[in-house]
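Worked example 2:
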Amino acid sequence: MRMVTVAIMVMAVAVGQGQSEPPQSMPADVGPGRVAWFDITTTDLPKSKEFYGKLFDWKFNPVQGTDLAVEIVAGGSAIGTIRGADGKIGPFNGVVYVQVSGIEESRKRAKELGGTLVPGFPFDLPNGI
């Protein structure tokens, strides 16, 4: 089954905003309604790596082609990224990707419930994700 994700912008303190790039590793097929991947944006990448590494025992892999992001690894699986802020800090912490069984049905339901589609979302990632 093709995994489909819906991105949700989440609020947080002292963070940047912007559209994420595709993950370096394939996100796990976690099942509909569950978080499949997330991106955290920070003003201090080394400090954030140290903090989250100690707090959650996360490990980090470099993201190919940049020193402004790292892939988060937990339990041997890639689960997201931490990225340096791109420009001025805004109200958004990052993006949370929730797996759904059908993107069009989920978009329709979200709109019925009063949701707003964020420009640029949803988007297809390479490799059929």
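The two ends are 10 Å apart (CA to CA). The first helix runs from residue 45 to 56.
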